[in-house]
TrEMBL record:
Name of the protein: histone acetyltransferase
GO cellular component term of the entry, any: transcription regulator complex
Gene Ontology MF: a single term: chromatin DNA binding
SUPFAM superfamilies the record matches: RING/U-box (SSF57850), TAZ domain (SSF57933)
Residue ranges occupied by any ZZ-type domain in the UniProt entry: 12-60
EC number: 2.3.1.48
GO biological process: positive regulation of transcription by RNA polymerase II
SMART domains in UniProt: ZnF_TAZ (SM00551), ZnF_ZZ (SM00291)
UniProt keywords, alphabetically: Metal-binding, Nucleus, Transcription, Transcription regulation, Transferase, Zinc, Zinc-finger
Signal sequence annotation: none
Gene3D superfamilies, A to Z: 3.30.60.90, TAZ domain
Amino acid sequence: MLLPMHSQGQDRCVLTCTECKQRVETGWHCPGCQDYDLCINCYNTKGHTHEMVKVGLGPDEEAEGGDEGGNQGERQSRSVREARRLSILRSIQSLRHARHCGDANCPRNDCQKLKRVVLHATRCQRKAIGGCPVCKQLLALCCYHAKECQENPCPIPLCLSIKQKIREQRLRLRQQQLRLRQQQIGNRLLQG
């Protein structure tokens, strides 16, 4: 259950262009919009109303300038991580709003979308076998939230059960560490 969040961010940064749906390593991210990224081609041809931030590291930039290129790549990588973190936090806020919103005609697009996602997740048959990408994304978002959540009760779906699993996982890890230390002490006593 926690695998999608655990493995998040371990692969190279890949953006999906909102316009052409192409997956690219270098592009432009809009910090003002929720999950709005453009490939370089769409950025140059279509543009965007908000100021965008260049993210990723293209092959032409990689080859330039030794240490400076490395520092620039590092800054861009931090920029991408920060943009994604902010995007996730906005998504969690939108999910929180959607869970509390009783307006069937709510003007917020993200509200309607997330209401449909939550409804889908309650009815989805594919998630039981781990094959639904929509359910996986919702689960990843809920896991990200649950790691820091202190609310009880919490309006975010699955938060309580995920927090319980995290506690159980931490308890098992502590028990394993304790057994390992006891084993090490026992081995030292036998050797000494």
